[in-house]
Description:
The structure holds two protein chains of two kinds. Chain A is α+β, with helices and mostly antiparallel strands. Helices cover 23% and strands 34% of the residues of chain A. Chain A has helices spanning 55-63, 105-115, 120-133, 149-161, 179-196, 207-213, 231-236, 241-246; strands spanning 14-24, 30-40, 44-49, 70-75, 78-79, 90-93, 167-171, 199-204, 216-221, 224-229, 251-260, 265-269, 273-276, 287-292, 297-300, 310-320, 324-331, 336-342, 357-362, 368-370. In chain A, the strands form four sheets. Chain A has a six-stranded mixed sheet, sandwiched between helices. Chain A is elongated and about 75 Å long. In chain B, helix 3 packs across helix 10 (231-240). The longest helix of chain B is centred in the last third of the chain and has 41 residues, at 245-285. Chain B has helices at residues 2-39, 56-61, 65-98, 105-117, 120-138, 145-170, 173-181, 186-214, 218-223, 231-240, 245-285. Chain B is globular, with a radius of gyration of 26 Å. Chain B is mainly α. Chains A and B meet through strand 6 and helix 2 of A and helix 7, helix 8 and helix 11 of B. Residues 25, 29, 31, 49, 51-57, 205 of chain A line the site of adenosine-5'-triphosphate.
Amino acid sequence: MRSNLHPYAQDNGAFLQxxxxxxxxxxxxxxxNHVSLDIRKGEIxxxxxxxxxxxxxxxxxxxxxxxxxxxxxxxxxxxxVSLPPYQRPINMMFQSYALFPHLSVWDNVAFGxxxxxxxxxxxxxxxxxxxxxxxxxxYGKRKPHQLSGGQQQRVALARSLAKRPxxxxxxxxxxxxxxKLREATQIELVNIIAEVGVTCVMVTHDQEExxxxxxxxxxxxxxxxxxxxxxxxxxxxxATRFVADFIGNVNLMDGVxxxxxxxxxxxxxxxxEHLVGHGITGTEGMAVAxxxxxxxxxxSRQPLETPYNQVHGVVRDLAYFGSYTVYxxxxxxxxxxxxxATNAARHSDAMLQAGESVWAHWDETAQVVxxx
Amino acid sequence: xxxxxxxxxxxxLSRLLSLAWLAGGYLFLYLPIAALVLYSxxxxxxxxxxxxxxLKWYAALGHDQELLDGLALSLKIAxxxxxxxxxxxxxxxxxxxxxxxxxxxTLFSGMVxxxxxxxxxxxxxxxxxxLVSMQRWLGFPERGALTIWLGHLLLGLAYATVVLxxxxxxxxxxxxxAAMDLGARPGEVFFLVTLPxxxxxxxxxxxxxxTISLDDVVLSAFLSGPGSxxxxxxxxxxxxxxxxxxxxxxxxxxxxVVASGVVLASYLIARRERRLAAxxxxxxxx
Lengths: 372, 286
Ligand SMILES: Nc1ncnc2c1ncn2[C@@H]1O[C@H](COP(=O)(O)OP(=O)(O)OP(=O)(O)O)[C@@H](O)[C@H]1O
Ligand SMILES: [Mg+2]
């Protein structure tokens, strides 16, 4: 993806350590269940998960608005759990921005600095610098309700960065913006965070946002962390069916392990036999699934001369998106295979029509074998 | 063609009719007030007969010690009631909104709201009974300004709590969290974020309870003692003895004060809006 925008932060040990944290709201509602994470200095770390999986709760424990039922949160060697929010070197940007409606933009940004009792000139200097950073110098006198959504978002960012926190928390930072503005803002936000050099934990349920902005992503479900890794790692080597399905589009083909050799395995599914060029830890006969991303599948009207990694199907639906087309193939077993093909040429005869009979095949390295 | 004209006539007629309704309604509301103002300038001794223009009733007001004392007392009690109601009301609203669970919350909430629904006569009567018994056993307190104030406070604080409770519920709790996140201690959060958020409701609660106290007759009648006659009580007792033009004059003064207050307030609000708009325009072109 676009992670080349922001090179990996140096690996200089964990800056923020979340150790075995549990949050139990009672009545059997365990919002965060034994979560452990190590976050590096200068890193943008995204918590990604569907609604209600506990992302906000975890973030609020970092900010100090919720107390963990058990576990430790250690920032830069200091245990935070006993500190109230106003003593933590952490600032948060709220999903609703939570700008003070009775204060001007300038006073909003100055709020935190004044609480620290900084001298007047230094407050002014730092507020002006912050407003310059988010390109709102001319809006200092306005009240929040006189700004657009995107401008409010930048004020909220400036306010949470003004105190130079050791850790910045972002709760759905772009959730309130419309799609177009969101894409432009993602990159701008990453650039600002990189310029300031602050370590950042963000929460989102938008996987594209997580992929574009974060150095590393943690996939959460029902209070648990399922997988942690760089965007391309969680996309290309998902560890479980849930992660494969959650991130991007995927075809999951269920089968059994037919042959297990150290250097290759054979998996038999309903529609084809999969040859995988590496061993897996499993026993012959066990149920596994093979995941193949739609964009890694090629289509042709004639079969290739290989017995493996190839299926026959009929084009049932196709959706044209301009730069690519998504085909839904009905396989012999009745299963549906999603294929996305790049439209490289204009007016191509190669464009398949609904009802056509085609062969779909893929590289053996495109497959991920999932055992759970 | 002719049908079109009929339809046109019908709409014109119905518009006239609704205008007449409107005019009738306004007349009913404001004609008595206009008449009262008019007769306050009448030289006749009878309050509803025109006897030529005069200002003598107004001049007489300046020497009418009973009314002047009543006014001073009413204003004093109204000020004290407004401040007391807003202070206690804020605390009560805070307890009810910020602490959804504490022992006796339902009882407390019911007791705070009871004076709103209880007929004033009954509240006044029961307070009077209590005061009489207290006087007998403790020799204290004497009925007067203090007891009137306590009665008004009881009523005003119920209204203030309702108004402030609604506002406090509507405030975004994330604002307080954001303030705390930025380093504000709980006390600072209250004064820097919660209180400004409550401000419009504090003003309306203050004005509401001020007015309630200023024109209260029922409670004051039960709770007043000799030498503590509020303005409404004075007017009321005079009106019972027969209408007289000096009461018209008092009423006109009150009406003018209220009207000019409203006009001044809307002028100030409009000026603030204009200034804000100008500031924004300046910021944009800077
Ligand atoms: N104060 C609370 N009391 C009881 N249960 C709560 C409380 N706050 C959150 N929960 C529960 O904890 C779970 C996780 O909530 P949380 O707000 O962390 O989800 P989320 O991942 O942020 O979801 P979303 O994407 O919808 O914001 C939910 O089931 C929620 O109902
Ligand atoms: Mg959330």
